[in-house]
Write a structure and sequence with these properties.
about 170 residues, Rossmann fold
Length: about 170
Amino acid sequence: TDYIEADLRDPAKILEAARRTLDFDRPVTLVLAAVLHFIEDEEAYPIVRQLVDAIPSGSHLVLSNVSSDLNPEQVGQVTKAFKERGFAMVRRSHAQVERFVTDNGLEMLDPGVVPVHRWRPEQVTDLPEAANPDPEFVASLDVLDRTRYQDINDVTDADVSVYGVMARKP
């Protein structure tokens, strides 16, 4: 493994550094988790294309992005707060997230573009601290911290508001 400090908007630098550690003659996995929503569309789609073009056949792409259609009101407030601080926050619809796969000729893997908490929920195990939490304690937490004590099946799409997808390069 290696760590590179780079800006996603400079994929050539990322690829150059990655080639020092990774063997690009063998499949790799490109993980773009919780980062693309900081990049505007006119840059995001070409960046992903450049990165996917560089990885060999058999490689995988894993990505996530804040949604625009699962909980638009709450996510809109978060987006506004980021923009007020000078950051981009690009919410993307199901179709816009799917474009990162289809525009690059990738094979979408099951279960497709889904809210991230729906990615293999049957494999989730309960955390020990969630077994019997004190209801008063849980009620005292903010909404985000409460999710730690929820069963994954109790979480709604609106609670998460992030799409995830995994795809394979043929």
